[in-house]
Amino acid sequence: MKGKMNKLSDSLIIVIVISIICVTLLSATTPTQNEVAKIKAGDGSAESFFGTAVSIDNDRCVIGASLEGEHGWGAGAAYVYHKSGNNWVEQDKIVANDAAAYFFFGTAVSIDNDRLIVGATGANTGIGAAYIFYWNGNHWIEEGKIVPSDGANGDGFGTAVSISGDYVVVGASGKALTKGVAYVFHRNGSQWTEEFIIVANDGMAADRFGCAVSLESDRVLIGARGDDPNGAASGSAYLFSRNGINWNEEQKVWASDGVQGEGFGSVIHLSGNRCIVGAPNAGPFNTGKAYIFRKDGGNWTEEKILTASDAAMEKKFGSSVAISGELAVVGSSKDNENGNESGSGYVYLYNGIDWVENVKLLPSDGAAGDEFGSSAALDGYTAIVGSPADDDSGSNSGSAYLFELSAQPPPVVKWEEKFESQNPPPGWQVVDNDGSGSTLVYLDQIVFTSGDTVRSQAGQYFWHGNFNSANGSGLIDEWLISPQIQGISNGDSLFFWAGAIGGNFQDSLKVLVSTTNSQIGSFTNQIGYFKVDGPIGSWHQYVFDLSPFDGSDIYIAVNYYIRHGGPAGANSDNVWIDHFTIVFDPSVPIPPDPGTVEEKLIPKKLQLSNNYPNPFNLVTTIRYDIPRKSMVLLGIYDAMGREVKTLVKGWQPAGKYTVSWDGTNYVGQTVSSGVYLCQFRTERYNAARKLLLIR
Question: Hey, what CATH class is 15-28+415-584 in?
């Protein structure tokens, strides 16, 4: 993976070991992407833009090529692939029975089991149409062409499509002076009939309601990228739920930090009790953001604002979005990782506490102008990402990539201090322990004119020590002490940066930990003693294992310590200290629980047992073991990876646990018969078991 990762050092780091320290790279345990296939049209040609739209369901995916020209320029096509063993094989090329130039068939696609729908915004004399196909065992057959009952030229019917069971929703964002509407069609046998027209209760001209749609069962999410809740074209999205043949507005959502022009709602995806909404124009100069909302009780609330760890202007992060269970994918079609506008994708994982960036997706052969990330879809742990401007079969012929994603939680930043405020953050102390000379000084990098390199990752402020710190006996003994940091656990590591400002002499730093208070005499645990090495103006990141302090609340001290420096600090120069983080690595093995519970009552390992009874009709019992205090997330998911109900979420002490599930979802409704997954997750463990519910 061509990711942007911090290095411990760009040159040799000399470490003087007094106590044994464990030095690890933060990036070393980060999961990597697993690209399993690159797919292209078997008859691919220039300017087809294969990958304009993508959708995936189980072992099938469909890709739109909206400008494919077999039936005239811009007629369009869609291609269906299925998984055969470890390979993805082209199953069919589908086109409209009445295909013609300028139909733009393939602008939007959606697949659910043996049916799929394709939008064609230029069909039906410019009104737009959508085409539904079913799989007859050998080929995909056109089942119906659907058009709006009140269509007009320029409506853009087919701009967005979504299918779930016997229902489809089609967006027409150009309708009514671009106010926009969405249409619901219902299947009866082989006939699809218009059942309802959805409009926003507060809709206005230019809202572009219907620019994106996502249907799941009896609920639909509809984007309105031109809506104005936070200023002109800041954007919004609406949730509707079905009651009989009516679709009622459930809630309107928008960005908590939105401003005008961000395009929130341009792309959306609904999955269970979560949805994700892209705002590709958010941030300064189209940096982009994505927003995850979660339904708890009766309301949808903003759960997380996602941004790229390497965010930059004009990346268009949020060009595409998808969510499934506790995984989310966000496309960034203008990212420059593999060349200008080559594109990328980002995978996020919910670890039971927060959504964290898991891995950056990059195609194995990405190149400038490919716009990888323009479209994306996710089913379980399989993601498909479109690259419509790829040139493998001619200029802008297009392609798509499939990835198998990891469910292993990445390292988590538990605590961080970047020193970004004008004054030292609360709780930080500087102690002059040598009796004279200057202390460590809190400085502003902008006005600090040493001429040395300023690390771009740092906050605006930093700590500076120099030879003037020496006392009359040549001793430099200056302390920087942190506030209390709570909840250290096995697998935690301390990272901080130190800089060599001058080139004449090397400065020494000690790193110490106290588990009682912030008095100097309490720092009896030395975890490092090293020289800050050159070259002049360079920075190095140092890391130390905090696992020995598992279960403790700690204070951290960095001691600028030099003996025999001389009255003028002849053996000292300058040092910078900046940016502290504590990172938890879930891959670190669990030590025995040191608690007072009788040993025979403490499980020896993390374990999720099979539920009993299984199959079950009314209630089943789930058992799991945790050998030490852990953050536990236990949930039920359907066969598509969509969350049904959270059974346990929170910290639990070591022990053996039993939980019952009565076959209801998160709002207490009885769910249908079928296969469900029970997923058990802690900071260090992830397991799942199949549950068979029979009504």
Answer: mainly beta
Find out whether the peptide bond into 627 is cis, omega within 30 degrees of 0: no
SS (H, E, C) 641-690: CCEEEEEEEEEECCEEEEEEECCECCCCCECCCEEEEEEEECCCCEEEEE
- How many degrees, rounded to 5, is the angle at CA 385 between CA 379 and CA 387? 160
Q: Where would I find the H helices in 284-423?
A: none
* Rounded Cα distance, 69 and 47, in Å: 8
Q: Quick one: tokens of 518?
A: 């912030």
Mean pLDDT lowest among 50-64, 493-507, 615-629: 493-507
Region for residue 564 given its phi and psi (left: phi exceeds 0; alpha: psi -120 to 50; beta: otherwise): left
Q: Is the per-residue pLDDT at 427 higher than 80? A: yes
Give the start-to-end residue ranges of the domains of the chain. 15-28+415-584, 34-404, 599-693
Is pLDDT above 90 for 472? no
Indicate whether 224 pLDDT > 70.
yes
Handedness of CA 666, 668, 671, 677 (dihedral sign): positive
Superfamily of domain 599-693: Macroglobulin (MG2) domain (2.60.40.1930)
Closest CA to 301 of 268, 274, 341, 266: 274
The architecture in CATH of the region 34-404 reads 7 Propeller (2.130)
The model's confidence at residue 504, banded by pLDDT at 50, 70 and 90, is low
Residue 648 near residue 634 (C-beta atoms within 8 A):
yes
Token couple for 244:
């009989």
CA–CA gap between residue 170 and residue 159 (Å, rounded): 7
Using one digit for the tens of pLDDT, what is the confidence trace for 136-178? 999 999 999 999 999 999 999 999 999 999 999 999 999 999 9
Tokens 């292993």 locate to 408
Residue with tokens 């898991």: 358
DSSP-derived secondary structure for 297-324: TTEEEEEEEE--TT--TT--EEEEEEEE
Question: pLDDT tens digit string along 87-101?
Answer: 999 999 999 999 999
Question: Which pLDDT value is given to residue 12?
Answer: 25
How much is the mean pLDDT over the chain?
86
- Name the CA dihedral angle for 535, 541, 542, 547, rounded to a multiple of 10 degrees: -170
Query: Quick one: tokens of 448?
Result: 């600090």
